[in-house]
Structure formats: structure tokens, C-alpha cells
Amino acid sequence: MVATDRFRPSVTVAAVIAREDHYLLVEEETPEGLRLNNPAGHLEQGEGPIEAVVREALEETARAFVPEHFLGVYLARFVRPARLEDVTYVRLAFSGYVGEEIAGRVLDRGIRRTLWMTETELAACEDRHRSPLVLQCVRDHATGRRLPLDAVFAHASLQSPPRKG
């Protein structure tokens, strides 16, 4: 295999936020139309997964997210019809809580609104999900899956990589 052919999955983080029996979701514009998703986004260079999920949740919900548990690592593959782009996503999902919406904070570009839905309501509209991982993460949370946050380790070299050679 040539180095340029190396498999490069897209690494994302997601926040699963529950209040009683409702989950906080975002409705977002995608090339496939309006879709529902957990507050989620791509891991950026130089940040660890916990930093990334806190940032993404804030950007997409205008609420401060406090991670409490790691839910797990999820993978899904998607072919974007508009571009025939074949992408495999590796999602690191975290559960936690949010405060109230921060007054005056604008939602990230492409996010139309936030909404609270039950697991049953979410399951009834799977055709509107951004990914099959949206419902899977909610179901895992609803069944009580909880892993410690320290199951995810981010080395300090993310912020300041050592020079070799």
C-alpha cells in the first residue's frame, strides 16, 4: 500500500446531553438537507477529545457543556450522494450536562436550532438523522453505559509536539 492510500477516518466528538427523559439535539444544514444530530463536530489539531466536545457543544448549543462520562468509540461509514465522497467517521461520545442557553451567543454556522427530544421521538424520525450514530449514542446512554473520563488520554504533545531528527 502506498502511503497516499492510507486509510484516514474522520475523527469527531459528540455530546449526549439528557434532562430527565429528553436529549438535547441540533438541527443542522447538511448537503443532504436538514438533519438531526447530537451536538458534535471534528477534532481539531492541538486539542484533546474532551476539549473538543466542550467546544463543539458550546458552539452548536450556546450552552456550556460539562462532560461527566465517556460513552465509547463509535464508527460509521457514509457515502455523501452530492459528492460521492466515501467517509468513515470515528466518533468519541461523551455524556454530561449543560446549563441554560447563554444569552446573546449565536449558534454555529449551519445550526438552525436546538431541540429536546425523547429517545422514542428520535427513533421515530431516523430518516432525518445525520448519522446512524445519533440514535445509537442516545440508546447507549439510556441503557446506562458510563465509562470514566480518564479512559480517554490526551498527551501534552498535542499542544507542543516534540521535534525529532
Largest sheet: 7 strands, mixed
Helical percentage: 10-25%
CATH architecture: Alpha-Beta Complex
Query: What is the CATH level 1 assignment?
Result: Alpha Beta
Name the average pLDDT: 94
What distance separates the N and C termini?
Answer: 26 Å
Helix segment count?
Answer: 3
Full CATH superfamily name:
Nucleoside Triphosphate Pyrophosphohydrolase
Organism: Pelomonas candidula
Protein name: NUDIX domain-containing protein
InterPro entries: NUDIX_hydrolase-like_dom_sf, NUDIX_hydrolase_dom
Domain Nudix hydrolase: 8-140
In words, what does this structure look like?
- The protein has 165 residues and is an alpha+beta fold.
- The protein has one domain: Nucleoside Triphosphate Pyrophosphohydrolase.
- 17% of the residues lie in helices and 39% in strands.
- The chain contains 3 helices and 7 strands; from the N terminus they run ββββαβββαα.
- Strands 1, 2, 3, 4, 5, 6 and 7 form a 7-stranded mixed β-sheet that branches.
- Strand 2 and strand 3 form a beta hairpin.
- The radius of gyration is 16 Å and the shape is globular.
- The two termini are 26 Å apart.
- The model has no long low-confidence stretch (mean pLDDT 94).
